[in-house]
Amino acid sequence: MADLDVDVVVIGAGPVGENVADRAHQQGLSAAVVEAGLVGGECSYYACIPSKALLRPVDLKAAVDRMPGVDAGPIDVAAVLARRDQFANPDDSGQADWLSGAGITLLRGHGRLTGERAVEVTHDDGTTTSVSARNVVVATGSVPASPPVDGIADVGAWTNREATQVKEIPSSLVILGGGVVGVEMATAYQRLGARVTLVQHGERLVPGTEPEAGRRVQASLEADGVDIRLGTSMTAVRRDGDEVVATLGDGSEVRAAELLVAAGRRSTTDDLGLETVGLEPGKPLAADDSTTVLGDWLYAVGDASTGAKLTHMGKYQARICGDVVVARSRGEELGGRYSKHAATAEQTAVPQVIFTDPQIAAVGHTEASARDAGLSVRAVSYEIGSVAGGSLQADDYDGFATIVVDTEREVIVGATFVGQDVADMVHAATIAVVGEVPLSRLWHAVPSFPTMSEVWLRLLEAYGM
């Protein structure tokens, strides 16, 4: 006999796992979540929330400094870090209380599958709890990837955890990786007083975006004083007193007080007992559009699955997963939003905002990825500073918008916005992409004047509408 019998057990109590459990429980199923670390997960304490808390003050100062007649003054670093702590204090009691109040059982410890519909939880004191569940959901998230650099395990390198929970800003920082974490932390740390060097193996920053987006972020970072090394690798790293010494592929050395490794993430599926049900540990779990991995009982959501490693996409999967579990428990057929639309959102309509300065807000395909996917497309761009809303937003507004149009269907399959304060503009584009709204219909969506959204009209005009 199991110690606990529930309808749903979720391994992982980050925002994704919490959402699965809550969605299922609100519709009448009993639910438990298993968490070995902090309830609330990586996003709450070490990623999305604290990083944006660090970035918002420096972003706001830069915006004010662009406006004649006002003066933001110097940044109070201590106050910035204190405000960060208000949002991301690593005390999960509030999150745990929320689960309890919602009627969801929290099991603190490491959860492993021991067979079909069976999970064993090992607690910190060595005791175990066996759980029998009609549905098991893996929501274990991801951890930073460790690149093969000689000596990197011995120098106390930072990951996003140390970077977002720092107690004082170091005098200098070398960042390995020019993806989202790399460019965001370069923005924050340079403006908070560190001397930043960024090393990127590829030839441009944030390579998954439109090339011009990466170029403009690079220009902004370099204008701030960031030393960017593109097209080179880090071959070795060592400590020399209080400094980290990184050797690059061209033989040069970079010295800094700290090293931040921002070289991507990998799914955390190593020690979950997946082999007990015939699956290979250590790899992302391949889930279908209904988030199902195996039979009608094993599911994967968020970073543990093969989907986009973004909190909002994980929570989207969580809502689907919770509804699918409930539908199956009632003997209902799956369909509708669990098929075509789920595939659209997961494969071609993933939105993302990169909180650099300028911000990058994008959804769906870039022009290159659309062509790689075999689509016949045409991309048109327009400078946001050329519309009244952009020029009012900041003097010499630096930013642009691009739409990628499927010319056979005359619908938008991708959009990118780059510039100050463009983060919230991406949702309108997401609706257009997911809804496959014809350009002839979008022509009648009149943008308010004078706002930056007027760029939508200019894009349609540039396309020939």
From TrEMBL:
Q: What is the E.C. number?
A: 1.-.-.-
| Cofactors that this protein relies on | FAD
In this chain the Pyridine nucleotide-disulphide oxidoreductase dimerisation domain maps to 350-456
User: What range(s) does the FAD/NAD(P)-binding domain occupy?
Assistant: 7-317
Q: Which Pfam families does the annotation name?
A: Pyr_redox_2, Pyr_redox_dim
InterPro entries on file = Class-I_Pyr_Nuc-Dis_Oxidored (IPR050151), FAD/NAD-bd_sf (IPR036188), FAD/NAD-binding_dom (IPR023753), FAD/NAD-linked_Rdtase_dimer_sf (IPR016156), Pyr_nuc-diS_OxRdtase (IPR001100), Pyr_nucl-diS_OxRdtase_dimer (IPR004099)
Keywords noted in UniProt: FAD, Flavoprotein, NAD, Oxidoreductase
Taxonomic superkingdom: Bacteria
Q: Which GO terms describe its molecular function?
A: oxidoreductase activity
Q: What class does this enzyme belong to in the EC scheme?
A: oxidoreductase
Name the family. Answer: Belongs to the class-I pyridine nucleotide-disulfide oxidoreductase family.
This protein is called Dihydrolipoyl dehydrogenase family protein
Q: Which organism is it from?
A: Actinomycetospora atypica
